[in-house]
Design goal:
It is built from 7 helices and no strands. By secondary structure, the protein is mainly alpha-helical. The protein has one domain. α4 crosses α6. The termini are far apart.
Amino acid sequence: MLPASFELPAAVLIIAGGAMACLAGYRLFRIVLAIYGFVLGAVIASSIVGVTNTIGMLAAALGGGLIGALTLVFAYFAGIALVGAALGALLTHGLWTQFAGGDPPALLIVGASIAGALAAMFLQRYVIVVGTAFGGAWTIVVGLISILQGRGTDNVWILYPTLPADSRWTMLAWLALGLAGTAIQLAITARKKK
């Protein structure tokens, strides 16, 4: 969680990182892995320190972020498998909540994550393009919601890829941005050089 004074700059960084991932994730995959690894490491490390200890929390976030970034960059293939696993879990969760309501069974999410990781290893290029486009699109939507509704990055849902119950338009915006990012990456940034 971040102190209130850092919420707007964090939301702007979330949008910028999301745009980079959405539009050029395949070409910049190692950078995207570093950014998302940094965010994940910072979130985990800073959650150990209390919100009232700003310097301690920032130090923990920086240290944890660097460890997370280095871990994902050096574990390139693990990063690809994690993108596939996250995409499988996200797709399953999104479909389940839209059609069945509530949370999906844990075994279904685990199975979808394993299937996504295996598919990612066989179809690396396309999984990276689709995963970064839709992951970046979600990050853009979350950052915009954070700014527009005054929700800071201290809300738990901002880091977990589920849709807030009060805003149905987020699914449409996410799908539109994700499809646009996929099309742009396949047409321009993911083209093989001749």
